[in-house]
Structures are given as structure tokens and as C-alpha cells.
Amino acid sequence: MDPNPAGMVEALLDPAFYHHPVTEVQHRQTHISHVFLTGLRAFKTKKPVDFGFLDFTTLDKRRHFLHQELVLNRRLCPEVYLEVLPIIDEDGRLRLGGKGRAVEYALVMLQMDESRLMNRLFEAGEVGPAQVEAVAEVMVPFYETAATGGEIDRYGRPEVFRVNTDENFSQTEKYVGGPLTTETFDTIRTYTDRFLEERADLFARRIADGRIRDGHGDLHMGNIILGPKVYVFDCIEFNDRFRYGDVAVDLAFLAMDLDFHRRPDLAERLIQVYVERSGDREIHEVLDFYKCYRAYVRAKIACFTADGAVEPAEKQTLINTARAYFDLARSYTGPD
After folding, report:
1. Does residue 2 form part of some domain?
2. Spatial separation of the C-alpha atoms in residues 138 and 115, rounded to whole Å
3. Distance, CA of 83 to CA of 271 (rounded, Å)
4. CATH of residue 223
5. pLDDT band at residue 2 under the 50/70/90 scheme
6. pLDDT tens across 109-164, in order?
7. Which phi and psi angles does 26 have, rounded to 5°?
8. What's the structural domain count of the chain?
């Protein structure tokens, strides 16, 4: 493994490290990245981790995927994603940018107003039909111009998408008897396998109609800024399999997110506006299938997180969340 250089986090926490005036640096991190908020700019570095579906274990890989993140997110947020800069080791002292031996790389972004995140506005009761309509208005032209054909179309085939669903079921069998009941597991797996087997004609039409695109891959309320302009950010860059697919896979994520938060009316309005603007009326035939998939993935991630080093109260909250997502996934399979 090629680890992040010693002292990197400490260096990026120092306001003097940056080229613009900084009074305070806030540090956020996920299981795959560090983010440093400086007021004007945000700087992201990747952790040297390998989870199978992503591999950031070498400096070259981290540089490559940061550039991918830059290019792919500029499709929807050209003003936000600015550049990738090297972190240079100069006689044991780290500095940002310039020439020299790069020991790490940082993605530079405009720091957005987190109070305008869609999930926060939703919690404040400030998301209604107008807001979801605005998101749909942004996504329709995005899908119309996103790359398609060739290798991308392959991900619209049922046998290829089955890789994702089979992976979900194999990774969650150990949770049966916990947040996932045997009945729910069997119901969702049977529904999923049957849909993939029996609706081959539908998948073929979606491909022929150009509905398979290089999409966003992570379209939920936490990745949307609502304001005078809508910004949809933080798309999946580390694995094409999670980004290539039917436009319905993307839209199903946000629609499911709204369903989960007990606003199916907003989910319905999102899809309605998308259909009106795109003419994609057949999306209704695949939407519940992909909503089921998205809810199941959310449940799986909650289970994985609960398995980690978390406090007992947080662990129980995550287990309850997982159970709720598993139940939602099952609801999309049809009446019992």
C-alpha cells in the first residue's frame, strides 16, 4: 500500500498552507476521503484504501481518480470543480501546487453553502414541488447529452445489471435474522431475479431508445444544492459500473430518497416532470425495480456502517435505518 504522506492532514489543517486567506480550516472525512473546508475553497484528498469496488492504494490511482472526479462533475457543476493540484514534498515540508516531487494530490472545489443542501432544506420543510421540478429540469438535458452507446449500453443489459443485484444478496445474507428478515430477503431476491429474467424485452427497448447513459450514480438529496441555480455534485468516479446504466437507476435513487422521507408525492412529481420534458414514458415500467435496488443498497450500507467501530446508540440507529430501508425495498416488489 502507498499511504498518504505523514503529516498530510496536519499540513492541510494549517491555514497558512493555502494560497488564499484562510482563518479556519474544518476537516471532514468519509471512509474514502478527507475534505478540508477553508471558507472560499474546499480541498479533497483520497485515502489509500481498497474496498474491491474501488482501489485508491497508489498515488497514481489517487491522482487518476481525482482527475476523473474533476472531469465528470464538471458536467453538472463546471463552476464548482476547479482543478487538481499536487501536494509537493520540499525537503520534508509539504506545500500546495508548483513543481517538485508530488506525494499526494488534492481536488480543489468552490466551497458551497451547506445550508442549501437539499436534505437540510427538506428537514427544514423547505422542499416542495418547485424544488423537485427544478432538479428534474437540470437532469433532463444532462441525460440527453451524457455519453451513451458502445460499452455504456452493455450496462443496460439484465445479465450485466444482475452483477449488482447478486452482489447485494451475497453481501447481505449474513444480516438475515437481524435487520433483514428471511421473508423480506427471499421476497426481494425472487422479485429481482424474476424481473431480470422475464423483462428482457423491456431492457432491450431501453437500450435501443438510448436510455442507457453515463449518469451520476449517486443522485440523492445529500448531493444536491438548491438555490438560484441547482448543483448536483459528487458523482461516482471510482467505478464505471455504478455510474453507467439506465437513467431510471439515477432518478430512482432520488425518488426512493423522497419516498423514504415520506414524501411520495414529491417523488411522483420528480418523475412526472422528467417524463414531460424527456418523453420517456416507459420509465414507469422499470422505476419500482430500480427503486427496490436503490433502497436495498442503502440498507446494505447502513449494515456495513453498523459493523464498524460505532457507539452502541449509533449502532442501534443504523440497524433501525437498515431495517426501514429493507422494508421499503420490499414494498416496491408489489402487494404481498
Report:
1. no
2. 20
3. 34
4. 3.90.1200.10
5. low
6. 999 999 999 999 999 999 999 999 999 999 999 999 999 999 999 999 999 999 99
7. -105, 135
8. 2
Same domain, 326 and 188: yes
Confidence category of residue 4, pLDDT binned at 50, 70, 90: confident
- Its domain, for residue 140, covers 116-331
Asked if the structure places residue 234 within a domain, the reply is yes
For residue 59, is it within any domain? yes
Take residue 286 and report the three cell numbers written for it: 422499470
Identify whether 1 is part of a domain.
no
CA gap 75, 81 in Å, rounded? 10
Contact 165, 157 (CB under 8 A): no
Q: If you search the block for the grid coordinates 497514481, which residue do you land on? A: 60
Contacts 24+ apart (CB under 8 A), 330-335: 330/184, 330/187, 330/188, 330/292, 332/288, 332/289, 332/291, 332/292, 332/295, 333/187, 333/188, 333/191, 333/288, 333/292, 334/191, 334/288
Pick from 133, 122, 118: which is nearest to 271 by CA? 133
| Per-residue pLDDT tens digits for 244-276 | 999 999 999 999 999 999 999 999 999 999 999
